[in-house]
Amino acid sequence: MNLAEIDTNAIAPIWDDLQQRLGLAPIHNKAQYNRMVQLMNSLVDEVGGNEKHPLADLLEIVGDIIAVYEDHHYPITDAEPREVLRLLMEQNSLQQKDLAIELGSQSVVSEILSGKRAINARQAKALAARFAVLPGAFL
Prior knowledge:
- By secondary structure, the protein is mainly alpha-helical.
- The chain folds into two domains: 7-75, no CATH class; 78-139, 434 Repressor (Amino-terminal Domain) (Orthogonal Bundle), CATH 1.10.260.40.
- Helices cover 62% and strands 0% of the residues.
- It contains seven helices and no strands.
- The protein has helices at residues 8-22, 30-47, 56-73, 81-91, 100-103, 106-114, 121-131.
- The chain is elongated.
């Protein structure tokens, strides 16, 4: 589609509907952030790792919106992967059992957080999808 052909009058009601239903917009406060994280978690549950899922692009967009907010409000620099995980768990009010799917089991989560086990590449990818961050944050 040519950009000159875009009917912005037709887009406005669709955009308004998306904002009303999903809260899809840039994040300006903690309440909007929490709602967007909730939306992302629902999308992760639905989409999983299926890049061909009809909602995969929406998951990516929501993840990008969250990342912009987190980069500005919760910068993570030179942190140990387990500390990054601990911070994200705290920010999202998660317990060890909540990450059993991504990491394998609650005991694996415990071992990672205590420094007895490193996060592997598969786990880093799953955590990155869950929290909408780059996998390198966990490696």
